[in-house]
Amino acid sequence: MIDDYIQAAMTQNQIPGLSFAVVQEGEPVLVKGYGLANIEHSVPATEHTVYEIASVGKTFTATAIMMLVEKRIISLEDAMPAAVNYADYLDCLPPAWQNVTIGHILSHQSGIPSYTDAPNYWEITHLNLSKSEILALVTHLPLKFQPGEFSAYDNTGYYLLGLLLEKVTEQSYGDLLQERIFALLGMNATVMNNPSDIVPHRAAGYRLPNSKLVNKPYYSPSVTYSAGGQLSSVEDMVKWEQALCRETLLKQSTLDLMWTPHFPNQGLGKIKICCRFRLVDI
């Protein structure tokens, strides 16, 4: 029944391939692939196929932040400007950002404009940009709302959290995730996306303009970074799902906090700090 449903959905939406898992009471009951991971070479999609997981990677960033919170190295109430020196990336930190806290950013309630909403964003995604060039897309803009007032999905905040992690731990963002998350969980297929690397089982990417399947254009990892710059497999995502529900990396009290809805002061938004790939209501 599941096979029929997925295959029908793939046909209806012209999806060339995907990998799928069903987890029941914390244990996988189905993990498999459907269709093709690479059409040109007729490579089947399997449970081992590695995909660009985009903003699912925000959950890694959020978890790494909460690890530091548990150790009392940082606090959710810390204002971002006080938590890390952005001098290497910004000539002048916008004064409007001074009251934005780490907690605001995790819950998408910072009011900071998302750099992916910049008018020219999709024209520059093929460029290998510096972090300062990415942030410069929004530093001249006003806040969308006062921190904590509303919810609005924001990539810039998670980009800043990556800088915070690097500053506090004195590790690169990728090394930090590898050492403190991926290696501990046996997530051997999960890495930072680097198009020049040889990655076993990497899927090809496709687009569907005008109902015609074509190869996707180059998308620079410099524009994703800690906002969603990872590769992973569905097998590894099962391990990650389990880690977010068990005291593997974090205490139960921290996990409970991450799964708790954090309502803004106004509006109807609801954001769970970490688990965007499980459930986010906005």
Produce a short descriptive summary:
By secondary structure, the chain is of the alpha+beta class. The chain has ten helices and eight strands. Strands 1-2-3 form a three-stranded antiparallel β-sheet. A three-stranded antiparallel β-sheet has the order 4-8-5.
Beta-strand portion reads 5-15%
* Mean pLDDT, all residues: 90
Structural class comes to alpha+beta
Cα-to-Cα separation, first versus last residue: 31 Å
Query: Which blocks of ≥5 consecutive residues have pLDDT under 50?
Result: 268-282
Q: Let me know the largest β-sheet.
A: 3 strands, antiparallel
Number of H/I helices: 10
**Tertiary shape:** globular
Radius of gyration: 19 Å
Series of secondary-structure elements, N-terminal to C-terminal: HEEEEHHHHHHHEEEEHH
Percent of residues in helices comes to 25-40%
Strand order of the largest sheet: 1-2-3
Structure in words:
The chain has helices spanning 2-13, 58-70, 80-83, 102-106, 121-124, 131-135, 155-169, 173-185, 234-243, 252-259, and strands at residues 17-24, 27-38, 43-44, 50-52, 191-192, 206-207, 214-215, 230-233. It starts with a helix and ends in a 23-residue tail after the last helix. With 282 residues, the chain is an alpha+beta fold. The chain is built from ten helices and eight strands. The chain has a three-stranded antiparallel sheet. The chain is globular and about 55 Å long. Strand 6 and strand 7 (214-215) form a beta hairpin.
